[in-house]
Amino acid sequence: MIKQIIASALITASVYSFAQTKVTEGTKFTVDANLETNDKLVLADDYNSYMFSAINIDGLMRNVFPHKKLLMRKLDQNGSLVDTYVKDYANKTNGVLHNYLGSQQIDDDKFVAFTEEYFGKENRKEVFQHVFSKKDGTFITKSIAKYSIESTNKSGTTYVLFSENGKYAAVFNDRYSNKKTDNINDVLVLDLRTLSPVWNKEITLSNDYVEKSLTLTNSGKIVLLRKAAGWKEAYKLELVSNNEDKDLPFDDKYIPEKLYSISKNDNDYLISFGRKKAAVTIGASTFGTVMFYDLKSGKAVISNTNLGGDKDMNDVKVIKTIIKGDDILMAIQQETVTRPLPTTMNRFPDPVYKLEAGMLMKFNKEGDVTQFVATGASTGKRIHVTEAGNNLYISTFYPKGAFGNTGFSMKVFDFGTLKSQEVNLTYKGRNFFQNFGFADGNMIQYVPNVNKMLFLEKNGKEVQMFSVYNFIK
Questions:
Q1: Interior CA angle at 272 toward 271 and 273, to 5°?
Q2: In angstroms, rounded to a whole number, what is the distance separating the alpha carbons of residues 408 and 393?
Q3: Tag placement on the chain: N or C end, fewer CB within 10 Å?
Q4: Which residues 6+ apart lie within 8 Å of 165 measured at CB?
């Protein structure tokens, strides 16, 4: 039985205070909050930082406003806007559709975004990489894959995956298939530092299962979670690489829901969030168990965590993985989904996804979960984790008041015990972390060589940078 030390998350008896800190505020600037998504603070150094965002809008007005853009805003040392670089990734040919697939920082100078375009009249689909260099201040675009499709409505689904260690990216083209066609898919794995192909091949999968979750390992292999087609409650794990294609056996009483891969001492491991079958555990949470799977030995360790609690979780987001000695710590966050009721103006409203509470989960060398601690409640934004020595600085959001407004919290956790202290930094006579810089975790960056933490706060259309010096002890 696992000792779930959730109570330790409540230990905030003392307050972490700071001396000789300095806070600077950048000049506010505006963005198009209705169109821009996937905001990230990236490429931060002593002198500049950059805000990335993407516009990926379709609809009747797509030819009227700029609906397919990649934007990179350059900010100076104080966080004030100095330049904006824009890449229009939409082909102007009528009938060609486009989609933003994902992005990742490559190194201290470069950032890459992936997009696709598909054209039913020519029965083709193409994937592009757009590399931004802060040294040159430009986007360089290159076509990296071309696929045949049946039509626009039968073009399949393209996924872009990134390995946890930042070494690899993968394009997985899940082709359209039915009972009359083979389930053939295309895989391209890239070295993320050079963006050169590592391996590239077609894989044929059985038609009686469909893809549910994918992950790219730190050694450049892909693991697929596949569910039996129809109502049958059956699942399988398949590993694919340049010279492998094999099933991974596991306990058939365990139902995996989401995959994530890590490595330790050059060995690959699979973390699967899931549940036990209802016949075994009545009323179990969808994400009530965690499987730690050794890809080399095939050994699986299943631990009870009750990650989902009493919430109707939709997904698990892994924020950060930290390895110290034999211990592996994962900072994760719950995601829930609600489906608004139809209205006369919108008969098919989109589902609303919301990030919920953050959790810290620690595995020992055998793969058992030994500690499971809540970082705090959340109100829809991503947490951020900064590692400094034996401390973890974790931001989170929490409900504050009866009218829906929120507060912002920063806690420091001891890695060994996972005990926490609330951080208090006085600025303008108030606690900075509860009154300023309410930044989503994607908009927080730490610059270690100058001990500066950047908080890029987005409030509707207004964005402002707060820089806190000498924050990390």
A1: 125
A2: 13
A3: N
A4: 218, 263
**CA diameter of the chain:** 70
User: Alpha helix locations (H) across 426-470?
Assistant: 432-435
Domain boundaries, the chain: 6-31+153-469, 32-152
Structure-block tokens of residue 352: 């609303």
List Cα–Cα distances, 95 to 123, 330, 362, in angstroms.
12, 44, 50
How far, in Å, CA of 113 to CA of 288, rounded? 34
Task: Report how far residue 109's alpha carbon sits from residue 439's, in angstroms, rounded to the nearest whole number.
Answer: 23
Number of helices and strands in the chain (H, E)? 1, 36
Residue 245 CA to residue 239 CA, distance in Å, equals 6
Sequence-ordered list of residues with C-beta below 8 angstroms from that of 65, at least 6 positions apart, any chain? 35, 57
> How far separated are the first and last CA of the chain, in Å rounded?
36
Instruction: Print burial letters for 352-383: b (CB count within 10 Å at least 16), e (below 16).
Output: eeebbbbbbbbbeeebebebbbbbbebbebbb
Class of domain 6-31+153-469: mainly beta
Compute the radius of gyration of the chain from its Cα atoms.
Answer: 23
The torsion region of residue 348 among left (phi > 0), alpha (psi -120 to 50) and beta comes to: beta
Q: Using one digit for the tens of pLDDT, what is the confidence trace for 344-387? A: 766 777 777 788 888 899 999 999 999 999 887 666 789 999 99
- The pLDDT of residue 435: 83
Instruction: State which amino acid sits at residue 8.
Output: S
Closest C-alpha to 366, from 275, 473, 294, 472 = 294
Strand partners, 392: 387, 413
- 3 state DSSP class of 442: helix
pLDDT at 259 over 70: yes
SS3 content of the chain, % helix, strand, coil (to 5): 5, 55, 40
Adjacency order of strands within the sheet including 97-105: 97-105, 110-119, 124-133, 138-148
**pLDDT on residue 6:** 38
Map residue 207 onto helix, strand or coil. coil
